[in-house]
Design brief:
Strand content: under 5%
Strand order of the largest sheet: 1-2
Number of strands: 2
Radius of gyration: 23 Å
Distance between the termini: 42 Å
Helix content: over 70%
Length: 288
């Protein structure tokens, strides 16, 4: 056997091993969450756990209803996507197709810097600037609210949305755009009606990553959302997300309360898996 073939097989085995390790980690996390989360759901009751509207885990008669956390996470992620994705997509179209090389280099460096900022810094800026601004602008008693969390999350998903969308747009064959321009379309029409649809799979991947970031964020939203287990009846309501429910109580929880927190983590994990599976299903269906 030639030396090059031996090296190729060795590299193939290394890649296979790394892939198996990745899959194994996912399976290990899944099994651990299921084993740790099912007992509390069995004791509390699936309906009472998922659709209960009260979370008072430290009361004499505790209640473990996580519907407020689920709705808050859904509203927060949806709001962040509705705000962040259009801004990120338009910025990506500009940087990929319209910006000069100098402007593109500066802006991409700024986007990369934005991606590297720790979430606690986003939360700190939101707590010191955004929360007082909402309180003053809208005349509410407390600016720590669902609206503040949505705005912070929208900013946090911008870097990944912009970077992945730029990569997808740059990969669109130039012949597509040349053909559109040759038929009389303007550059803006070409980029919006030809380039963006051609790059929709990459843009969808950016949206999926943004959804995962918005749903999985804990520290920043804990600092700006108020961290109170209320039903999200208003944008100005202080709320608690699924992630912050776990992180805020796990340090001192014990017994059924601790098991219930693992159940919340299991629900969050399944929720993200369901969103990814649904988006992948629709993308594959559209390709077919």
């Amino acid at each position: 056997m030639k030396k090059s073939q031996i090296v190729e097989q060795a590299v193939h085995l290394v890649f296979l091993l790394l892939g198996l390790i990745t899959v194994g980690c996912v399976l290990l996390i899944t099994v651990y969450l299921v084993v740790s989360g099912i007992p509390a759901i069995r004791e509390i009751g699936l309906t009472a756990f998922l659709f209960g509207t009260e979370w008072v885990s430290t009361a004499a008669e505790p209640k473990y209803g996580i519907l407020p956390f689920i709705l808050t996470s859904v509203y927060g992620a949806a709001g962040a996507i509705l705000i962040g994705v259009p801004i990120g997509l338009l910025a990506a179209v500009y940087l990929s197709k319209l910006a000069s090389p100098g402007v593109k280099a500066v802006m991409q460096s700024a986007v990369s810097l934005l991606a590297g900022i720790p979430s606690v810094v986003y939360g700190l800026v939101g707590m010191l600037v955004l929360v007082p601004g909402i309180r003053t602008l809208f005349g509410v008693p407390d600016g720590a609210s669902l609206l503040a969390a949505i705005l912070v999350l929208a900013v946090m998903i911008l870097p990944s949305t912009i970077k992945l969308s730029i990569t997808a747009l740059d990969a669109v064959p130039k012949e597509y755009e040349d053909a559109s321009l040759a038929l009389g379309a303007t550059p803006v029409e070409t980029y919006c009606k030809v380039s963006v649809p051609a790059a929709k799979s990459g843009i969808a991947a950016a949206v999926v990553l943004g959804v995962g970031r918005a749903i999985g964020e804990a520290m920043a939203v804990m600092m700006v959302a108020g961290n109170v287990p209320n039903m999200p009846d208003s944008l100005f309501q202080s709320v608690r997300f699924l992630t912050t429910a776990v992180s805020s109580e796990l340090a001192y929880a014990g017994g059924l309360q601790r098991q219930a927190l693992f159940s919340i983590a299991l629900v969050l994990f399944l929720f993200i898996m369901l969103i990814n599976a649904a988006l992948n299903f629709f993308l594959k269906r559209e390709k077919e």
